[in-house]
Design a protein that fits this description.
The protein is an alpha/beta fold. It has 2 domains: 308 residues, Alkaline Phosphatase, subunit A (3-Layer(aba) Sandwich), CATH 3.40.720; 119 residues. Strand 5 and strand 6 form a beta hairpin. Helix 6 runs antiparallel to helix 7 and helix 7 crosses helix 8. The longest helix has 23 residues. The chain is globular and about 65 Å long.
Length: 452
């Protein structure tokens, strides 16, 4: 396989004013900067890392859907409105996720691309269901009831042109205990490239994240997941070459967060139920609530019922203050919403954020007991997790290669919203009110330069 997708043309043939390059963005969910040395030993990761790469600080919360939305909007959660993976639905054991693109509260790259007549496609990218702007959308969405219900909702959420790809590659969705979309997403993406040659393509691959959740941060299963993803990246690069667009395509690898080893799981809603702030019926289901903690990985969102009065509010905040002081409860801090908005650009319909002690995973559930430790015989939860504050633990990765990208470069740090602003710049677009800036260290010709 040739390396044309990585080769920058001579400076004098850099893209002319008004000319739009093609862009392919591949999300390797949960890849972090400490993975780069191993990734460099894999042939297709190495091709992209041979351009320019660096560390990318996630937005809060450091979970998949808010960060993938930041990668397409340039905004933090206060700007784009996707404040968690899941919708807050007290009493639901398995809430729906933020699958619907119409929930995004600001313009996306896909909206801007449509305005400029650029063809866009997404495969498995979060928060792209029912998109009004994406030409070929095959979103990430599932139904826990099984494969057939998943295919039904996937067809419904896909764009009209995307449904043909769902039907063509449905047999490549894996299903054992849950959905596995990596093989399917790769097959769909390469098929779209060959048939449609879109100017903009975003693809989401989750195998590394799944392996880390289930087995730990650095295990044989994670290594195997990287090797599998490397093969899929190779297929995407090969499809670009076969479609004759490799030389005009800038290719990015992005990720959304690191991982932290889990030592315990905390069910704050069990504590709230014991205090009468969550009320259960005779079957043990939630019948009513004044307060609710929505688990967001290693932190939790503290919600107050819209009809709860000031007395309930003061009681809840007093209880949380007691949790922070109690060494038996793994909550080390409460961050009021106004502080989160100022410090992290974070907002949503809650009082603030509970920060767990190191390695504490928050769960939405209310039954059983409040605390489950890794050495407990009945521990059957995640082995590693994310959702921590952005500055904590190892950072995500942003790497690019292509005709407009500097070769052999390295930068120290950017943010996830910076990635979206960089993508917009490469496409000749401009995101309004962005919370980021172009990562000029990546570019052969910095933004604002008159050099050609």
């Amino acid at each position: 396989m040739s390396d044309t997708v990585l080769t920058a043309p001579p400076a004098e043939t850099s893209s002319a004013e008004g000319e739009h390059r093609r862009l392919v963005v591949i999300s390797v969910d949960a890849m972090s900067v400490v993975d780069v040395p191993f990734a460099r030993t894999l042939p297709h990761f190495a091709r992209i890392l041979g351009g320019t790469w660096g560390s990318a600080e996630a937005i809060y919360p450091t979970v998949t859907y808010p960060n993938h939305t930041a990668q397409t909007t340039g905004r933090t959660a206060a700007g784009h409105g996707i404040y968690a993976n899941e919708r807050v639905t007290p009493g639901e054991r398995f809430p729906d996720w933020f699958w619907d693109a119409r929930d995004i509260a600001c313009p996306t790259l896909f909206d801007l691309a449509a305005e400029q007549g650029l063809t866009s496609a997404t495969v498995g990218w979060p928060v792209t269901g029912w998109s009004p702007s994406i030409d070929i959308a095959v979103p990430e969405i599932w139904d826990l009831a099984g494969l057939e219900p998943t295919l039904e909702v996937l067809r419904d959420a896909a764009s009209e042109r995307g449904r043909a790809y769902v039907d063509r590659h449905a047999a490549e969705i894996g299903w054992d205990r849950k959905h596995r979309f990596g093989r399917f997403n790769t097959a769909v993406a390469t098929d779209i490239i060959r048939r449609e040659r879109p100017e903009v393509l975003f693809v989401h691959l989750v195998d590394v994240d799944s392996a880390r959740h289930g087995t730990g941060r650095f295990t044989l299963e994670v290594k195997e997941a990287f090797e599998r993803v490397d093969g899929w990246i190779g297929e995407i690069l090969a499809a670009l070459e076969e479609a004759g667009v490799a030389e005009e395509t800038n290719v990015a690898i992005v990720s959304d967060h690191g991982h932290v080893e889990v030592g315990r799981c905390f069910r704050a809603n069990h504590e709230l139920a014991e205090q009468g702030l969550v009320r259960l019926d005779e079957a043990g289901e939630v019948a009513g609530w004044d307060a609710w903690v929505h688990g967001c990985g290693l932190t939790g969102q503290l919600h107050l019922h819209p009809e709860a009065g000031e007395a309930a509010r003061e009681r809840v905040l007093g209880l949380v203050a007691d949790w922070v002081e109690d060494p038996e409860i793994p909550v080390q801090a409460f961050h009021p919403l106004e502080d989160m908005r100022e410090d992290y650009g974070y907002s949503g319909p809650f009082l603030g954020i509970l920060e767990g002690t190191s390695g504490t995973n928050f769960q939405n559930l209310w039954e059983g007991r409040s605390l489950y430790g890794r050495f407990d015989e009945d521990y059957a939860f995640l082995i590693s997790q994310h959702g921590h504050l952005p500055e904590q633990d190892i950072q995500a990765v942003f790497a690019m290669a292509g005709p407009d990208i500097a070769e052999g470069g390295r930068f120290a740090r950017c943010t996830v919203p910076d990635e979206a602003v960089t993508f917009a710049h490469l496409l000749g677009l401009q995101l309004p009110e962005a919370d980021g800036a172009v990562v000029n260290e990546m570019l052969r010709v910095p933004a604002g330069s008159s050099a050609r």
